[in-house]
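sorry for the late reply, my laptop died twice this morning and i had to redo everyting from scratch. anyway the thing you sent over, i finally got around to it. pasting the sequence first so we're on the same page, its 108 residues, then the predicted structure underneath. double check i copied it right bc i was rushing
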Amino acid sequence: MNVHYKKEGITTFDAPVDKVFDYMSAGNHKHAAFKSHRLLSAAGNVVTLEAEIYTPDGSTFTTTITHKLNRPNGVETRMSGGAFDGARFTHSYTPIGGKTKVDLEGEF
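ok and here's the structure:
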């Protein structure tokens, strides 16, 4: 079963879009839901990593996450394996001065 989710203004980064893309393409950004992660590959505009993700009960599952960086518009993400197997979603970026507004939409 898939759930469609859309949230405009899910967050705002205190950085311009270019810096957000540089951070995302490095493949080593921290995420509160990740117990651990490691970069598998970074080629062109595609970054793939393996992550161990916390569930609400504190247990974890492992998944492969593939980010397609569509500069300057956003990041398309696919997850393979674990609780979010088959999830596909997009973080869309809107520049606001020196900041970046993030919208989220996808199938989980």
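The longest strand covers residues 60-70.
thats about all i looked at so far, will dig more tmrw
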